[in-house]
Amino acid sequence: MQDDYTFTGNEGGIISESDARQFIANYHMGPCITWNQGVHGHFFGKKLIEELLKQRGAKGIRIYYGSKPSASSGVLEPQLILVAANANGDDMLSQGKIADISRPCPKFCPKGVGLII
């Protein structure tokens, strides 16, 4: 558990379309740390989600599975990539807002009530 972190709503960040495509390709190629071998969830702040949803024509958010190298070990770790989707269900790539850079659990897990058993 990460006891000394206070979520601010600003967690997460915009990544490039090429990074998003690479992370998704990494996930499909494997191998990586599987979802049930460590990462339980990801936290994205309110600010980032609102930024995706405020794009003209956005009706929701699509979430893709991806993997990217850990900054410390280089081992591929699970990631979630968020992109706004329009009324047709199409990813809104032309506005260049694709999100990643979440706070994964563990390390940033619920301090009290949470879904983790």
Record the SSE blueprint:
Layout: E1 13-15, H1 17-29, E2 41-43, H2 46-53, E3 60-69, E4 76-85, E5 98-100, E6 103-105
Antiparallel strand pairs: 1-5, 2-6, 3-4, 4-5
Helix content: 10-25%
The number of E-state strands comes to: 6
> What oligomeric assembly is this protein in?
single chain
Q: What is the overall number of helices?
A: 2
- Strand arrangement, largest sheet? 1-5-4-3
Describe the structure.
The chain is α+β, with helices and mostly antiparallel strands. The protein has one domain. 18% of the residues lie in helices and 27% in strands. It has helices at 17-29, 46-53; strands spanning 13-15, 41-43, 60-69, 76-85, 98-100, 103-105. It starts with 12 loop residues before the first strand and ends in a 12-residue tail after the last strand.
